[in-house]
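ok so heres the complex, two chains, lmk if somethin looks off
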Amino acid sequence: MSSATATQHVDLLLVEDQSSDAELALRALRTLDLGTRLHRIGNGAEALDFIFGRNAHADRSAEAPPGLILLDLKLPKVSGHEVLRALKSDERTRQVPIVVLSSSGERSDVERCYALGANSYVVKPVDFNAFTETVQRIGTYWLQTNEGAGTCMP
Amino acid sequence: MSVGPGACSRSPRRLRPRQAPMLNLLLFSVLPFAALLGSAAYTLVVSYRLRDWRPGLFVGVLVLMAVHQGNELFVFVEAGPGRALSGFGEYPETTANLLASAATVLLLRFVTRERHLAEQLQGLAGTLEERVQERTEELNAFASSVSHDLRVPLRAIDGYTQLLKQHHAHQLDEEAQRLLDVVRENTQKMGTLIDDLLTLARLGRCDMNVQPLDMNALVQNTYEDLGRTAPATDSVDFEVHSLPPAAGDPSMIRQVVLNLLSNAVKFSRNEPTPRVEVTGTQTDAETVFSVRDNGVGVDMNYADKLFGVFERLHDEEEFEGTGVGLAIVDRVLRRHDGRAWAESTKGEGTTVYFSLPHTADTHE
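and the predicted structre for the whole thing:
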């Protein structure tokens, strides 16, 4: 398992601005040894650039979108809600599963995310063991158990 | 308003000393009523010195009244001492006259001011209610935002402490490991505290969905749920007497019952035979439920602190807790127009009561 280089295909994109949360999540996923390429981006605007291959990430324009996106809601510049809306309203990315990974368990946040087309909503536990287990379960389910639209070969 | 015969001549007929004040009062007693009847009153202050344009004034008043018919016009004429106001003629400056003038003016002022104040007050109360609502929402949103933001560093503290323990255990001696455990314990405590605060904030603003409640099922299910996280329930002698139905928001009342049962179990766990008992009775106006335990009890000298946020009446070493549980109970019941109170004897146990008012849903 490795972090993707700039132009490689990414299996899992983590959009998370808090570096500690990102490190803990990536650590949890790496110990799973799923053999997937992980990449982390710290704000919503860059995440959209990365996924759509534009601006600073124009070299990725031919690259297929990530196989799975783990999305935090509180992001600088472009919020997680906006990223979700942009991805789910675009033909190219509509089928990419998006798991919202948020500290907020507020009913309004959860409802809004589902309304925008989130595939799953998970509240990040404060407890480290619970957090690791949660992230690993997400990784196993969405990257191994789940059959994604992008992985179906014709 | 007819003008007396003398008013047409250049020298008005002089009234007898007692007549003028009476007429004066009579005229002005009509105006406050006009003001009272209307829903809003305009105050028109007319010149102090009326003597020279008296007839014109009255025509003006009549015209204004006609124009504003039904539009709550209130004409307030300031009377000066010794001046004729009614058009009935001049009257001498007697004490009675002065008093009468002063009284009418005061009465008029009082009525106008009262009315004005009442309207202002009504407006302010409306605005205030809106403001309070706004601020409460802001405060709750702030509390929830802060609570979420607090979780990030907390998760980091817990996470990195654990990583240190797991991956560098060989570099840490026993004392260092113990210290890390203390860090961990405290992050967990703070996590619980944040969760409780979030619950408290959420209960203050979420919409209520009041419906009939089967309290027997609710209490039993809640106790079973509690058993999954609180092993102390295993040794408790738990009894639910047949409970009358009630009406309330299911998830909120469940939270109340959960907090009370969890307290009862917690504070009686050191007894040789811990006992928790739930009863309920219906009165004319409300349904009262009680959760009784035979535990450690609380000092009723501090009863007023029992339902406050962050108020704890036991040492942390003895009984863990954040001091938010009963504050949540109190808030939920207040939102239901019910109430919560407690009776306790130190060393003999505590009974916490809560009541829910009857609604159309209660007997369904």
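quick notes: Chain A has a mean pLDDT of 88. thats all i got rn
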